[in-house]
Amino acid sequence: MNSSVSSTARLLGAGLRALLVLTAICGVVYPLAVTGVAQALFHDQANGSEIKDESGQVVGSSLIGQTYHLPKNDPDDAEEAAKPDLKWFQPRPSDGLGSNSVNTRYALILSGATNRSADNGAVGGRCTEDAEGGTLCAQVVAAKEAVITDNSTASYRVGPEDVPADAVTSSGSGLDPDISPAYAGIQVHRVAERNHLDVERVEKLVADHTRGRTLGFMGEPRVNVLELNIALKALTTS
Hints:
The chain has helices at 2-41, 43-46, 136-151, 181-194, 199-208, 225-237; strands at residues 50-52, 58-61, 178-179, 210-211, 222-224.
């Protein structure tokens, strides 16, 4: 009997020591080590890849897109469609899933795209004005018409062939922070006109904020919309 109690006590003691050691290693030492390395070597990324404006205030993350809409006539009206503020460069469409009341810059609770196939609503294999409402094709056609209308000015006309795919489709997450140089390019004249700037200055702004392929071969050239709009704001207030 005494041997059984002694054996049980030893097992409990060994288990308790293992618990304390593993708690110290996995719950204290390892998290502190990882946090220390991240802060020392990857400070910006570890803190959310924050972007600050010219005043030093954090205005967002380089990894998450933002919308640039005009205020609603009735903020409490969920049915009222938000209209883009055309003095800013516009991001990709953000057709997310669900809604939330925390991050009101996006009507999202889960990130995600439409999850519809490329031929959803297609007529004769093509997206046309006859596409059935509510389908992906109908959304693309409507978005394309809006891009052409919004970005055409008195001296510059956007043609249907000028509209790139990222201007009318959301990304897989619906939160893509970047747009293609082509999409930024067709917005230049409208942004210049709305902000009373020379087109050449806005074109240079886009060129300065265009990043090439990662490591020279991965991905596509891109423009971070938030960084571009921060630079635009600085240009208009200088």
